[in-house]
Amino acid sequence: MALGEGGGGGSRLRRQLESGGFVAGEYVKQLSQQSDGDRDLQEHRQRIQALSEETAQSLKRNVYQNYRQFIETAREISYLESEMYQLSHILTEQKGIMEAVTQALLLQADRDDPALGPRRAAAAADPFLPLSAKEAAGGGEEGRQRTLTTLLEKVEGCRDLLPESPGKYLVYNGDLVEYDADHMAQIQRVHAFLMNDCLLVATALPNRRGAYRYDALYPLDGLAVVNVKDNPPMKDMFKLLMFPESRIFQAENAKIKKEWLEVLEETKRNRALSEKRRLEQEALPRPAPTPPESTNPFEEEDEEEEEEPSAEEEVVDLSLEWIQELPEDLDVCIAQRDFEGAVDLLDKLNEYLGDKPVSQPVKELRAKVDERVRQLTDVLVFELSPDRSLRGGPRATRRAVSQLIRLGQSTKACELFLKNRAAAVHTAIRQLRIEGATLLYIHKLCHVFFTSLLETAREFETDFAGNNGCYSAFVVWARSSMRMFVDAFSKQVFDSKESLSTAAECVKVAKEHCKQLSEIGLDLTFIIHALLVKDIKGALQSYKDIIIEATKHRNSEEMWRRMNLMTPEALGKLREEMRSCGVGNFDQYTGDDCWVNLSYTVVAFTKQTMAFLEEALKLYFPELHMVLLESLVEIILVAVQHVDYSLRCEQDPEKKAFIRQNASFLYETVLPVVEKRFEEGVGKPAKQLQDLRNASRLMRVNPESTTSVV
């Protein structure tokens, strides 16, 4: 009985499984009753398995699509948050302008009616008291100082704040609840003290009512206030931005939240205005004190000399609007990730103050700006850290690197850039799938590594074109990266005991890719040779031992008989193999009817030795010269000693003549071919091979000798 055919059966099965009343036990029971046998059940099982795989693939596609949409949404939210912060900053500036206009109108009214002046001055001193209380307060400053002292005595760890700033006074304070910025979970209850130049946050002590412990202190210059939109049950909240962190607090009700927002903005504005007035007053030229008249005639010349530098003194004008707003503008640029704009502002300031004298106001401005420079540097360092996304290639780091270089941090930019690229290369190598074919994996490995190295080198040359001192760091980094590549290469090629031919092809591929770096004037071939020499030596010696063991095994079974290849095709194939080995006169050793006048042992030894030599020459570089030469000599000696021993021990004249014919092939044909091919591959003759061939002549002259010459 058929359980469903084709797409129609699959659709019905899908609808049946997706139905709300589906019961697995009943379905299996019904299926067992309706099936004709095991074959129907197997087919139905395959259809369910195919449906399961299709569903899994669909889920994967949906998850990937939703993940991409989530990433895009998160990016849009980030942009929106940046724009909202910028909008809040603009609104704050507009509010400040409006209040400045109002203050100017009030000053004009004071000139018209002088009686209102003292009253408004008292109101400006403490904006959070009722106007009648301000008028009644004669010593308002001292009263606020005492209030601040009394409150801060209840805060552990704050006794050293007042002596350092005698002009500090309390503006506003109250209880708040702090929430986690990511998960909006309640963290702790705090008490905030707003002073005329800073905000103090303290946590409540659990066992002491009305007592607090110091938590944090934030200068108003680097503090930004952002209103958080009510989203029940999360309401009456506002956010404080202090680069590089932010904190969210909840007020008791909407009225207190509004008071906090207004008083924070008002206090920040008053702080900025007082700082501006102070800088303007310091920038004004001060009249020099009149020196007492002197009757000493010799002091006139000294006075003239002293007057010259005072006349040359230049007053630095720091009252310019862009200088006053520079710290806040830098904060905005950093928050908006406008790194270029921040560095442009710093360059503008450095150019303006370049030839100006270093006065106390300039030092204070420099201190504020240096703090922003440190913050900007930290952000750029984080942009280049390997913890960030490594996608995008070397060009993705260009923005942060170029701004660090403009800030005079070339060494740090170079170090972070190379660390970032090292992590990227390591990740790319680790993500490579190890295929079944070693050569295929090595092709992918070389492509990934050397392409990354080439791109990194080109990007480095672009970013650090004017910093020649950084190039040595790049060479050191390239060597360490090459070591990482060789570790992965050797683990796959040599540790897995691949054949010598496979190892030779893999090394050849690596060398060819390494030569691509010569396009940018970088030659790392000597480094890859130095790192691979140990593994290649081990591979040559291992393969040499295999050939020697195989030759000894064949020698032990040697009967000294001619080879019969049975078919002309087999004989033709052997001729072609010998021709590829470099033996051009092999026809003189062939006989009639597919016979070869050589023993199987000598022919097999010839093919195996020449194959070893060809593969070894692909791996050759000068450091391997003696290893390759000694391996060849050891392999040849096994065959030579066997032929020598057989000549001395064989008594049958016919077999002795056959052995002598094999010896002649070995000495007069094979050894010269090995010697010639070695010289072609290496570029110079091998004296050890010449000595070995010359020594064999003594044996051919006196074959009856019972002493082995070799």
Automatic annotation (TrEMBL):
Residues 272-283 have a biased composition (Basic and acidic residues). Residues 169-269 form the PH domain. Gene3D superfamilies: Exo84p, C-terminal helical domain, Exo84p, N-terminal helical domain, Pleckstrin-homology domain (PH domain)/Phosphotyrosine-binding domain (PTB). SMART domains: PH. The keyword Methyltransferase does not apply. Keywords: Cell projection, Cytoplasm, Exocytosis, Protein transport, Transport. GO terms for cellular component: exocyst; growth cone; late endosome; perinuclear region of cytoplasm. Its main location: other. Residues 298-314 have a biased composition (Acidic residues). Transmembrane segments: none annotated. It is found in: Cell projection, Growth cone; Cytoplasm, Perinuclear region. Residues 272-314 are annotated as: Disordered. CDD domains: PH_RalBD_exo84 (cd01226). GO terms for biological process: endosome organization; exocytosis; extracellular matrix disassembly; Golgi to plasma membrane transport; protein transport. GO terms for molecular function: phosphatidylinositol binding; small GTPase binding. PANTHER family: EXOCYST COMPLEX COMPONENT 8. Belongs to the EXO84 family. Component of the exocyst complex involved in the docking of exocytic vesicles with fusion sites on the plasma membrane. This is Exocyst complex component 8. The gene is EXOC8.
